[in-house]
Amino acid sequence: MDELIDILDDEGNYTGKRLMKSEAHKNGLFHPTVHIWFYNKKGEILIQQRAASKETYPLLWDVSVAGHIGAGEEIIPSAIREISEEIGLEVSETDLIKVGIFKSIKKHRDELTDCEFHHTYICELKISIDHLKKQESEVKALALLPLSLYITELQKNGSSKKYVPHDQLYLKTIVSAIENQL
After folding, report:
1. pLDDT tens string 29-79
2. Is the pTM of this model over 0.90?
3. What are phi and psi of 131, to 5 degrees?
4. CB count in 10 Å sphere of residue 88
5. Are 76 and 93 in contact (CB under 8 A)?
């Protein structure tokens, strides 16, 4: 889905420009996104399998919830909206723990370069995965995976191909933040 988004400079500062997401991707322009990683007290993380129709990384497993921040939208309300849309869960601002902002550049092809600043949070999942309602256009499946197994699979060359690739520092920061909550 195309949407109007704010354009950032390469340091993550707002430029005052707004473009459609497709235009930002076509021209490799930075823009803000949200990532929310859910975990439970059993030491499991919630991962989502991206829908087959996704333009990037179809059917790969990824962060629990992620999305673009709409033009003029604040970060926290965007995170709360994305959680509600993608997995049908209502959370409050106090449920979200900010982990950091991560710069990411991924060139998928000549006409699609993701240049993003991921505003990244963790959040405790306090209900059964069976109570979540996935957004069919975005999410094919949801799964809980022990954090230790996720780490092991990412370290293996073959298994890591089923996950959306992320920077190692990003992943280590996420894992550490979740481990600190357990």
Report:
1. 999 999 999 999 999 999 999 999 998 999 999 999 999 999 999 999 999
2. yes
3. -90, -5
4. 12
5. yes
d(CA 154, CA 159): 7
Place of tokens 């849309």: 85
What are the structure tokens assigned to 42, written together?
């059993």
Q: For residues 32 and 158, which has the higher predicted lDDT (pLDDT)?
A: 32
Under a CB-based contact definition with an 8 Å cutoff, are residues 178 and 94 in contact? Answer: no
Residue 14 structure tokens? 């707002």
Give the residue among 13, 46, 54 at the shortest CA–CA distance from 30: 13
Selection from 44, 56, 38, 47 nearest residue 121 by Cα: 38
Q: Which domains does the chain have, with CATH numbers?
A: 4-181 (3.90.79.10)
Mapping DSSP onto H, E and C, the string for the chain reads CCCEEEEECCCCCEEEEEEEHHHHHHHCCEEEEEEEEEECCCCEEEEEEECCCCCCCCCCEECCEEEECECCCCHHHHHHHHHHHHHCCCCCHHHCEEEEEEEEEEEEECCEEEEEEEEEEEEECCCCHHHCCCCCCCEEEEEEEEHHHHHHHHHCCCHHHHECCCCHHHHHHHHHHHHHHC
Taking residue 29's Cβ as centre, other Cβ atoms within 10 Å add up to 20
